[in-house]
Amino acid sequence: MSPTTGRNLLTDNPELYEARFPDPDRLAGRWTQDCLRRHAAGPRVLDLGCGTGRDAAHLHTAGRTVTGADLSETMLAHARTHHPGPSYVWADLHGFDLGRAAFDAVVCLDSSLLYCHTNDQLDGFLSSCRRALAPGGLLIAEMRNGAYFLGRTDLLDTPTVNAFTWQGIAYRSTTTLTVDRTAQLLRRTRVWTTNDTDDGSEPVAQHSAWRLLLPQELRHFLAAHGFEVLELHDGPGPRTEPPWQQGELPGTAADSDRLHVVARLRTT
Q1: What share of the chain is helix, strand, coil (3-state, %, to 5)?
Q2: Fold for domain 149-211?
Q3: Does domain 14-147+213-265 have CATH number 3.40.50.150?
Q4: Does 149-211 match 14-147+213-265 at the fold level?
Q5: pLDDT tens digits for 55-88?
Q6: Which of 3, 87, 178, 217 makes a 20 to 30 Å CA pair with 153?
Q7: Where does the UniProt annotation place the signal sequence (predicted)?
């Protein structure tokens, strides 16, 4: 398969990632900036799990002082070249130290928080956020909603097929989701094929998983680490259908497949 794959076809190839998930209107960045503005956050923002840097760069152009952090050196290199402005650093969200009270907000989008598969990993993430935030700082996260899978199977019943063309090669992915109830994980298997037959490669199967957090469970973890929940809702947001539009306020339900949270670090 071309380009050469490593651990993950998309994260190992950031330009391919942006082709698969285009965001020309910077919807996620604009939604995040709206949350920051509505809650009067200070200018220093940590975008944790920044990926290719598109959202971090948007927040930078909005006047924020932004640090983008990611576990993938490949993604960080792409971000520095293609989305300049923020400072980009390596960090593991399970536990990081980028300075005490160094930020006014920590942003964690696109289910990045759910790569904390265990309670210890989630505690490590929230402890690190507490250390990184100034008193009164915000944590903004957007992720899949564990509560959606209580009694629902529509996202599990049928594999999802996506096809797109990049640099003359047609890519096709078939994604299957399964629930591991014992581990409380949503497991994903994504099989990639292309029409590039010259290299004679076989389909590539890649595996990942997200923690299935319930809304009240998330509230409990946040409170235990000194955060007050300001918003917790299923939309509108950058990944909802229909997507968030400028000026829309958050809802009050938590019933759909995405979950959005804004929490403030208590000052006492």
Answers
A1: 25, 30, 40
A2: N-terminal domain of TfIIb (2.20.25)
A3: yes
A4: no
A5: 999 999 999 999 999 999 999 999 999 999 999 9
A6: 217
A7: none
Query: Other C-beta atoms within 10 Å of 129: how many?
Result: 28
Backbone phi and psi for residue 54, each to the nearest 5 degrees, phi listed first: -65, -45
The SS3 of residue 205 is strand
Distance CA(173)–CA(161), nearest Å, equals 6
The answer to whether 106 touches 265, Cβ cutoff 8 Å, is no
DSSP-assigned letters across all residues of 119-131: HHHHHHHHHHHHH
Structure tokens at 212: 């299935």
Q: Give Cα 213 to chain centroid, integer Å.
A: 14
Q: Is the peptide bond before 236 cis (omega within 30 degrees of 0)?
A: yes
- 3 state SS for 237-253: CCCCCCCCCCCCCCCCC
